[in-house]
Design goal:
With 375 residues, this protein is α+β, with helices and mostly antiparallel strands. The chain has ten helices and seven strands. It has a seven-stranded mixed beta sheet, sandwiched between helices.
Length: 375
């Protein structure tokens, strides 16, 4: 029962959805492109069967007024303020919830305003081409005899949810809460391909890290941001599902719906646990990558140090031989000056003296450099 209105019980909804659930790791088929904005589809149901498909909001309101047991499901995609205002006036939606639905960018939450539930969900979709996770926002107004869905993104595929429910009239006859649980299941099922995509990205990052790819750190950081954003989208749903389960008895929710809700909670718990593991794994990979980068830098520094040492040794040898060869050049230059009054210039042994002096200086320098290890 939602908002004090009881619907005819049915069964088999959990089994019906499991047959159509998306397998883990297999991306769901792309949803049809929605219109630029406004109402996507509106339908009025009586006892689980489609009674009318109104073309606008005014016609939907009229059908609800004419049929006592009718339930309207209005699907909107990025509606304008006039449409939201019309819905708020007709269904007496709370101003705070209306403001959130207009502005979007809300965290996942569940709020009750009188007999109306306001639910914010964050759906996720993995883009294989860009290898990125795309997040979109979905707002739901659940009240006595109506369901209003406001999408601010491409996911989830609510048309598939509507088709699936319309094939199970007993389930749809239970009213707005059946639609709510079906949408929750669709959102949680949409998380499975995202988990598979993130796991594949992490495997690729591990290969990059141990392969010495310099761009690994940037990709680890980007993937960590996606994982954190995914945690923020999925983890609050656990609290919401617990709150729905806790209030199921008070509002007379059918037992089949309760079992289905527990099944959705189990699937979501598995998703949250795996995402938590991804975050810890990425932290470890980042630490390993930093260690490997540090080791590589140390190896490069050792290589540079060895090269610098070799260059210094070569420079010592060059400098030593330059000093040794400079000595005879200096002596020869001095005795090559054309001055008249120079000692040893007219001496018979002057030439031999100059040669011996050159040899003596060169030999002394050679011994000195040899002792110091320069040669």
């Amino acid at each position: 029962m939602v908002g004090g209105r009881r619907f005819r019980p049915g069964g088999g909804f959990g089994r019906q959805l499991d047959e159509h659930a998306t397998p883990v790791g297999v991306p769901p088929p792309p949803a049809p492109a929605p219109p630029a904005g406004g109402m996507v589809e509106s339908a009025v149901y009586i006892r689980g069967h489609r009674f009318a498909s109104p073309a606008g909001l005014a016609e939907t309101y009229r059908c609800l007024q004419e049929q006592d047991e009718a339930m309207a499901w209005i699907g909107l995609y990025r509606p304008d303020i006039d449409q939201i205002t019309s819905l708020a006036r007709e269904f007496r939606l709370h101003d705070l919830a209306v403001e959130d639905a207009i502005n979007a960018h809300q965290r996942p939450k569940l709020e009750r305003y009188g007999d109306t539930l306001f639910v914010v969900l964050r759906a996720a979709r993995y883009d294989d081409l860009r290898e990125e996770v795309e997040f979109s926002e979905l707002h739901l107004f659940i009240g006595p005899g109506f369901v209003v869905t406001v999408r601010h993104g491409e996911a989830p595929d609510l048309a598939a949810v509507r088709r699936r429910l319309e094939t199970d009239a007993p389930m749809l006859a239970q009213g707005p809460e059946a639609v709510l649980y079906a949408i929750l299941d669709q959102v949680v099922d949409g998380y499975a391909p995202v988990v598979a995509g993130l796991e594949n990205d992490i495997d690729e990052i591990e290969t990059q890290v141990f392969g010495g790819d310099p761009n690994a750190s940037r990709r680890i950081y980007g993937l960590s941001r996606e994982v954190i954003e995914f945690q923020r989208a999925a983890r609050p749903l656990l609290t919401m599902l617990d709150a729905l389960a806790a209030g199921a008895g008070s509002y007379g929710t059918d037992e089949e719906l309760r079992r289905y809700l527990r099944d959705v909670t189990d699937h979501l718990t598995q998703v949250v646990e795996r995402v938590d593991g991804f975050r810890h794994l990425l932290q470890n990979i980042l630490t390993v990558n930093a260690t490997l980068v540090s080791q590589q830098q140390n190896e490069e520094m050792r290589s540079l140090t060895a090269a610098s040492y070799a260059q210094n040794e070569e420079l010592k040898k060059v400098s030593s031989w330059a000093a040794i060869l400079f000595a005879p050049t200096l002596i020869g230059t001095v005795y090559g000056m054309n001055f008249v009054h120079m000692p040893e210039l007219n001496w018979r042994f002057g030439y031999l003296f100059a040669l011996l002096l050159m040899l003596l200086v060169c030999g002394t320098l050679y011994l000195v450099f040899k002792r110091r290890g320069w040669l």
